[in-house]
Design goal:
Blueprint lengths: L8 E3 L9 H5 L2 E3 L1 H20 L9 H13 L1
């Protein structure tokens, strides 16, 4: 989620009115350190996601019944 991402920017100007995104992007500049840090964070999140092992597929109706029966036995 974008809540976990931090940006370090320099405000170059202000606009009196809300403008389209391409125009708004001209009013700020992201620092090189911020871009580098974001890329490193993205790579580490990607590696973490790839290292997790999960089920190959979702359980079908038969598998869900087996899981329920197993849980009830224990």
């Amino acid at each position: 989620s974008k809540n976990d991402i931090s940006y370090i920017i320099t405000v170059l100007g202000l606009s009196e009115y809300r403008r389209p995104a391409p125009e708004a992007q001209l009013l700020y500049e992201e620092s090189v350190e911020s871009i580098t840090q974001r890329e490193q964070d993205r790579e580490s999140r990607k590696m973490l996601r790839l290292s997790r092992t999960g089920p190959e597929k979702k359980p079908n109706k038969r598998d869900r019944k087996k899981i329920r029966d197993f849980i009830r036995k224990t």
